[in-house]
Amino acid sequence: RMTPELEQRIAASLEHSGRFAELAALWQAQLARMPLGAGAERIALLAARAELLLRIDQLADAADAYESLLDVAPTHPGAVDALIQIYRQLGREADLARVLEMSASQAAPADKRALLLEAAELRRNRGDIPAAMTGYLTVFAMHPADRELFAAIERLAYKHQRWQDAMRLYDLTAAAVAQGVVDGVEVHAPVE
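Structure (tokenized):
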């Protein structure tokens, strides 16, 4: 059995010699032996391993490592951004939409809109209309004066016969008009 000091020396040697895949494997073995309640030590090792795998372009393994990191540290700085980058490169749109929404939940109000719209677009492109409508309506609730978004949501609702979503859109609009947030919006069935 290796002592922690010997493992640290081996890790330093692997890193110094550029044997990063072996270093990642060593860290994975350390994580497997580490008690689940190891807290900060576990988080630091998960983060280091994820960053290393991303650096050596092992994207699928890096994604798994960052997901494991988020399981124990949901607000770890940089993990969600790294996953967005990885899932874009891997073309994993369902995962990308999920982490964009995760990012939006922690983002400044100015950034939320773009993140949620991109996630909704990805879901729409994948044919997940219910999830896309939820995303679009969430953005519209934050920006009820956006007439282009209103029209796009309305068209999508009519095209897919999502009448409850159309009614939710109209309710959001009516509430915004009643509160003086927006002027009246002309509501009509779109012509296809």
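The radius of gyration is 23 Å. Residues 109-125 form the longest helix (17 residues).
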